[in-house]
Amino acid sequence: MSRLKGMNRTVSQCVAVAIFIAGQQLVASAEDDLLLHVPQTFSSASSAAHVDGTASPEPSLAAGDVVETIRERYPDGKIRIERNVTLDADGNYVNHGVWRLHSPNETIVAEGQYDMGQRVGSWTRWLGRNDAPVFKQFPFNRFKPPFASQVNFTQGVMDGEWLIVDADNNKVMQVSLTQGKRNGLVTTWLPNGKIYRQASYDQGVPVGDVLEADSKTGELKRIATYVDGRRIVTKTAHYRRTRNRRGKELKKSEEMFLAATTVEKTPDNFWNVQLAEYESQGKDLRHGPSKMWFENGQLQVEGFYQMDKRSGTFSYWYANGQVAATGEFVDDLPSDVWVWWHENGQKAAVGNYREGSLIGDWRWWNDDGMLAQEKSYRGNEATASNPKEVLELGRAPDDENSIARRTSDVRTR
Fold first, then answer.
1. For residue 385, what pLDDT is reported?
2. Which of 6, 25, 183, 222 lies at a 20 to 30 A Cα distance from 302?
3. Cα–Cα distance measured from residue 123 to residue 111, given in angstroms and rounded to the nearest whole number
4. Domain boundaries, the chain
């Protein structure tokens, strides 16, 4: 009996040990199963609770720590866009890393890099003839497609050289950019490698000469000039009822202007090769030589403007060709010595200006040469600077009617 009890005790101990071992295995197995369901992102997290029963804090991830790949597909299952994304600081998915666009035949047609949702580094897109209207225009239509449009990005903005080449790697166009604006040369080529057109920009504003190849000789010629975004233009007006011997209308005026400022309306876009568009802003300013004629063809006024203000020597004539007055303008105000003449050539007046004010001794003569008046000024009497009033200062005091009649033909600006 005692032997039987000993055997039962031994069996019971063995069973207990087996049960204990099986229990430990079950626990281990259950813990393994639990770990398999933990997302890889959080697999390094500690157990759910400490020994004291308080919850363990969940670790946080820095923006951009984990990159995932997303593939958008065509209806037939082929990849259309393949891009890398990550979470930003606000928990939103943004492009981060390689970005590629595939054609339906699985050819890469665009690729580049993103950094937290912004384009960075070199980007390239390949386009066919019909992918951009500019490729149907001269001289783009002379090149062989497909075209490669390549540019560098800095923090999401085009920055550096934007280059367009054709299928034979011939340069088509190159645009220098700084923070998205044209800054430097913009050059367009012909298929033979020669420059077709070249222009300069400063922070998005056209400056200097615009050159273009002559259609016959191929030599570059100046076709326009810009000063701080303003194109230099010449405006000519004619007398419609008066013509010369050849039947052409006689000139009424010819003046050089700085046209209204050229400003960017829409920026350059490498993706669809859309070139920047510009528009005019403000008003035209006289800048450069200025001439006006009487209807008989005789020169009436000649001078020079600086930013819409008279500058330097101005001369005025009578319709018979006799000089009427001459003097200097500084910042649109008469300055220094001015001299006036009668229509018969006799000197009419001499006087001095200082910043538009009469100064010093002035003298007037009649048309027969007799002294009509003398007067001294201290520089505290100003005069208007429009041509008619300046000319009227040169009239003899006793000859007001005749001088007024002669100056009535002079245009007032």
1. 64
2. 222
3. 6
4. 64-110, 117-229+263-285, 298-407
CA distance 20 to 192: 89
Residue 87 Rama label (left phi>0; alpha psi -120 to 50; beta): beta
The predicted-structure confidence for 276-304, as pLDDT tens digits, reads as follows 999 999 999 999 999 999 999 999 999 99
Asked if 166 and 144 touch (Cβ cutoff 8 Å), the reply is yes
Q: How far is the C-alpha of 351 from the C-alpha of 408, rounded, in Å? A: 22
Q: 358 near 378, Cβ under 8 Å?
A: no
Q: Which residues contact 134 (CB under 8 A, 6 or more apart)?
A: 140, 273, 274, 275
**d(Cα 132, Cα 337) in Å, to the nearest integer?**
63
Separation CA 120–CA 117 (nearest Å): 9
User: pLDDT tens digits, residue range 318-352?
Assistant: 999 999 999 999 999 999 999 999 999 999 999 99
Token pair belonging to 350: 């001499």
What is the rounded CA–CA span in Å between residue 154 and residue 253? 51
Which tokens is 292 given? 């006006």
Return the closest-CA partner of residue 147 out of 118, 123, 121, 170.
Answer: 170
Return all residues near 90 (Cβ < 8 A) that are at least 6 apart: none
**8 A C-beta contact, residue 119 and residue 105:** no
CATH topology of domain 298-407: Outer Surface Protein A; domain 3 (3.90.930)
Do 284 and 259 touch, CB atoms closer than 8 A?
yes
Task: Residue 199: count other Cβ atoms within 10 Å of its Cβ.
Answer: 20
Q: How far is CA 198 from the centre of its chain?
A: 16
**Omega into 57 within 30° of 0, i.e. cis?**
no
Nearest to 71 by CA among 106, 42, 120, 38: 106
Average pLDDT taken over every residue of the chain: 83
The backbone torsions φ and ψ at residue 393, rounded to the nearest 5 degrees and listed phi first, read: -65, -20
**Which of left, alpha, beta for 60 (phi over 0: left; psi -120 to 50: alpha)?**
beta
